[in-house]
Specification:
7 helices; about 240 residues; about 35% helix; single chain; alpha/beta; six-stranded parallel β-sheet; two-stranded parallel ribbon; TIM Barrel; disordered N terminus; binds zinc ion
């Protein structure tokens, strides 16, 4: 995995082997010692080695005792894999929820220790939180996480480099439904169903508040994925074969 990450980091964009390496100026910190935030990048499955025939459902901010369980129930009933970006500080006491995710074929990845924007942390705090969350996920599930989704998608170019140096792939999303604002089950369904395309990385939430609308919208979203003929996959997707 580290080799793959190193390869990706070493060959950004379409630069061929004969090109000079691109020198990116290191961003200057502001008066508070923070790096400037860049626009939230988009991640599609094809950015991660997946295909346009695949779709990834992802859930942030758990584990939460009620909503994560209800999301897992729907995923179980429909045989759908998904990826959970969890908060390390919420794992203790809910270890069995994480082992259930893995048992159901879901991936457990890093969101953060607490829900703090990485752009508002010191270098030391970011490193500590990435390591302790990844270590706890590995301890509980037996699988080392490979991806990190920064809270609110807030990063700088330097923070993206830091995440990769820890051995994690920064992952954002390509489609969401504002489900964290609880716009209503129908609004969540419509936003995802209408926006769904091959390669979509769909952002939903199983934590951070009442997620009953997200849970209620999930069967329709999964039906739409099936109806369109897409394969639901976890992150990072298995490399396309053939
Ligand atoms: Zn979040």
């Amino acid at each position: 995995m580290r080799d793959r990450l190193t390869d990706r980091a070493a060959s950004p964009g379409r630069a061929g082997p004969s090109r000079e390496p691109v020198q990116r100026p290191r961003p200057q910190r502001d008066g508070h010692g923070r790096y400037p935030t860049i626009d939230i990048p988009v991640t599609r499955l094809t950015d991660l080695g997946g295909t346009a025939g695949q779709v990834a459902l992802t859930f942030d901010d758990g584990p939460e005792p009620r909503w994560t369980t209800e999301v897992l129930d729907v995923l179980d009933q429909t045989g759908t894999p998904a990826t959970f970006f969890v908060l390390g500080s919420k794992i203790r006491g809910y270890e069995q929820t994480l082992t259930r995710m893995v048992r159901q074929g879901c991936a457990v990845e890093v969101h953060g220790w607490e829900h703090i924007r990485m752009t508002e942390q010191t270098d030391r705090e970011r490193l500590r939180d990435m390591h302790r969350t990844a270590d706890l996920i590995r301890e509980v599930t037996g699988h080392a996480p490979t991806c990190l989704r920064p809270p609110e998608g807030r990063v700088s170019a330097a923070i993206l480099d830091e995440i990769r140096l820890v051995g994690l792939t920064p992952v954002f999303w390509s489609l969401h439904a504002n489900d964290w604002t609880r716009p209503g089950t129908a609004a969540i369904e419509q936003a995802i169903v209408h926006g769904l395309t091959g390669g979509s990385v769909v952002l939903l939430h199983d934590g951070g508040g009442d997620r009953s609308q997200t849970v209620a919208a999930l069967p329709t979203i999964i039906n739409a994925i099936r109806y369109c003929g897409f394969d639901a996959v976890t992150l990072p997707p298995a490399p396309a074969s053939g």
